[in-house]
Amino acid sequence: MNILYHVVKFEAVRMRRNFAPVFFALAFPVLMLCIFGGIYGNRPSAKFNGLGEVDISVPGYLILVVAVTGLMSFPLGLAEYRDRKILRRFRATPVDASSFLFAQGIVNVVLSLIGAVLLFATGYIFFGLHLPRSVFYACAALLLGTLTMYTIGGVVASLAPSERSATAIANIIYFPMIFLSGATIPLAIFPSGMKVVSDILPATYAVKLLQDAWVRGASTNILLDMAVLFGVTIIGSLVAIRVFRWE
């Protein structure tokens, strides 16, 4: 436990010096909220059960927060350690190499939580963001979406043969996930062809699940979203465990 504490502390310092994940997890979603919240406001709308545009946008931005840590920061950190033989070296010391896996997960999840709190506080203070209809279902939906994003990130780290290829694969997955899933741009304005693409992205179902919990509390529409996310999480976890290499 003492070793894990020091490894987590080291990873936290390392994360603070890494501009990209910190910016995209903490600042970028808040900037998106300020831009579109300033444009559209949060006037109640009947189509959102009395909630407003900000209320329906924030769930998407929350998935944006966990996507940057789960799809980019987490797998790239693991790929870097493996590619530079760091994990192999620590396997020959009293420090268990698996401690770095846990530390990476802990630091990135904490970063996600801070980003989520900043986003919610900004929406609540400046744009009149309402609490979700069901806080329990919203938290459960966000947890499931987070597990799915980190599972996909684990698959990337496991399959990529090098740090450079992991970066390329993560970017190829990350940017369609955030721009075509409804996390940043509402799905309602997508043409039919783009909606077909969005339907194959797991992040789409995470966004819809969290939006449903926020607007309606829960409904029968969530069954497909939950099934897709659980399926991706289970299959992805099996693949990552099966093919992950320490060196």
Task: Describe the protein in words.
This protein has one domain. The longest helix is centred in the first third of the chain and has 31 residues, at 53-83. The mean pLDDT is 89. The protein is an all-alpha fold and 247 residues long. It is 76% helix and 0% strand. The protein has ten helices and no strands. Helix 6 (135-159) runs parallel beside helix 10 (222-243).
Features:
single chain; 76% helix; mainly alpha; 10 helices; 247 residues; globular
What's the SSE blueprint?
Blueprint lengths: L1 H15 L2 H22 L12 H31 L2 H5 L7 H30 L7 H25 L3 H17 L12 H7 L3 H14 L6 H22 L4
Helix pairs in contact: 1-5, 2-3, 2-5, 3-5, 3-6, 3-7, 3-9, 6-9, 6-10, 9-10
Based on secondary structure, the structural category is mainly alpha
Helix content: over 70%
The tally of helices reads 10
Percentage of residues in DSSP E strands = under 5%
Shape: globular
Largest sheet: none
Give a short overview.
With 247 residues, this protein is an all-alpha fold. It is built from 10 helices and no strands.
